Amino acid sequence: MAGEDELKLLGTWASPWASRVKIALHLKGLSYEYVEQDLDNKSELLLSSNPVHKKVPVLIHNGKAICESLVILEYIDEAFGAIGPSFLPADPYERTIARFWAAYIDNKLAIPWAQAFKANTEEEKAEGLKQTLAAAEMLEGVLKECSKGKLFFGGDNVGYMDIALGGLITWLQETEELCGAKFFDTAKTPLLFEWMERFSGLDAAKVSLQDGGRLVEFAKGGGLR
Amino acid sequence: MAEKGVKVFGMWASPMAIRLEWALRLKSVVYEYVDEDLGNKSDALLRYNPVTKKVPVLVHDGKPVVESAIIVEYIDEAWKDGYPIMPADPYERAQARFWANFADEKDLNGFVQCNAAVYPVFTATGEAQGKVVHEAQQCLKTLEKALEGKKFFGGDAVGYLDLVVGWYAYWLPIIEEVSGASVVTDEELPLMKAWFDRFLAVDVVKETLPPRDKLLALNTARREQLLTA
C-alpha cells in the first residue's frame, strides 16, 4: 500500500553506490527520507541496520534494512513491481545477462578503479587503471550487443545495468583529471560516451549524481571510501 | 538444428559446479554433465564462456549461462513451477542474496569475504594457521546468524543460500583433514555444524557428492603442490 510505505535511505553524498539507489527510487517515483551519514562517526542507525559491513547505502523499508546497492536495486524492483518501470527484464535468460554484467561492473571495474585511487605506488595505480580501461572496452561491446541500437543497456528504457553503471558516472568522470586517463572516451568507447551523456541528462541522474567540482576536491583530499 | 536440452559444464571436484546439480535435481530437470579437464578445456566450454572461460556453465537449449550463483537463480526462474529455491518474499530474497554475496564475493574495497577467508586455511601452516583459522571462524560465525532458529538457511527446507554455501558441509571437513586445522567445531560453530549434518542428508546432495577418498587425495596432492611451489 503506497500510502503506508516508509522508505529511508542511509547514504553519503559522495557515494556512487548510494547514487544508484537514489536513481532507482526516482525512476520508480518513490518518496523517501534521505539521511546523510558521517562515516567517521557512524550512527546507531547505520550500525544496527548494517551490522555486518557498517556501510552505506542501506535502504530501510518499513523498518527492515536492505544492504548492498545491487541487492537494493533488485529489492526495489521486486517490492515495488507494480509501480513504475521494471529494471530487470522479464525473461529469465535476459536477467542472467543483466546480473552478470552488473556484477562485472562491481568486480572488474569498480574494484580496480578503487585500487587505482588508493594506490600507494605508481605501479599499483597503473595496474588498476589498465583493468578499469579494459572493462570500459568490454562494456562498449556489451552496450552494442544489449542495446541493439537502442538508447540504453536495457533497450528503450533504463534498466538494471544502466543504473549499476549510471551511479558511477560522476566518479568515473572526475577520475579522468586525477588519473590522466579517460573512462568515457569518444574515440575508444563512442557508444559508452553517448550513453553517458544521455544517462546524465535524465532527471533521475540529475538529482542523484554528485556535483563534479565538489567530488574532485573530495577525491583529491583522499575521500574515496 | 536448434540445440535442445540442459547441459552442465563442470568438473567433478568443483564446489561451484555442484550447486547447479543440486538446483537442477531439486527441480527434477534432466541434464547432461560434461566433466572438463581444467588443464585442457574443451572447445565447447571456451565457445560457451569466452569471457571468463571458467566452469560451471549451464547451457539451456543452446544458450549459455555463467557464474554459479546467477545460474542457480536462473534455474529457479526458468523452471518456476518446480521446487521453490528463492524465497517468495522480496525482503527474504534480499537477505538470501546479501548472504550469498557475503559468502562468495569480494567487497568493493577488495576485502574478500567468507570463501576467501576459508581458502587460506588450506595452505596455512604453523603459527600462521592459527590466525587464518580464527579469521575463517569469524566469517562463518557471522554467516551462522542467518541460520538462527532455522533448520536450513532456507527455513524448513533447503533454499538458495543453502545451495550457495552448502559446499562447506563437504569440502570444509576435507580441507580440515588435509591441513590439520580445526575450523567448524561444536564449541565455535554449533549451528553450522548441525546444519552440515542436515544438509549432507538431503537426497539431491547425497546423490551428487564426489567420492570422499578421491576428493581427499586430490586436495592432499594439491596442497603439497602449493606448499612446495
TrEMBL record, chain A:
Residues 5-84 form the GST N-terminal domain. CDD domains: GST_C_Tau (cd03185), GST_N_Tau (cd03058). Residues 91-225 form the GST C-terminal domain. The keyword Transferase applies. One of its GO terms (molecular function) is glutathione transferase activity. The keyword Transferase applies. One of its GO terms (biological process) is glutathione metabolic process. It catalyses: RX + glutathione = an S-substituted glutathione + a halide anion + H(+). Its EC number is 2.5.1.18. Keywords: Transferase. It is an enzyme of class 2 (transferase). PROSITE patterns: GST_CTER (PS50405), GST_NTER (PS50404). One of its GO terms (cellular component) is cytoplasm. InterPro entries: Glutathione-S-Trfase_C-like, Glutathione-S-Trfase_C_sf, Glutathione_S-Trfase, Glutathione_S-Trfase_N, GST_C, GST_C_Tau, Omega/Tau-like, Thioredoxin-like_sf. Belongs to the GST superfamily. This is glutathione transferase. It comes from Brachypodium distachyon. The lineage of its organism: Eukaryota, Viridiplantae, Streptophyta, Embryophyta, Tracheophyta.
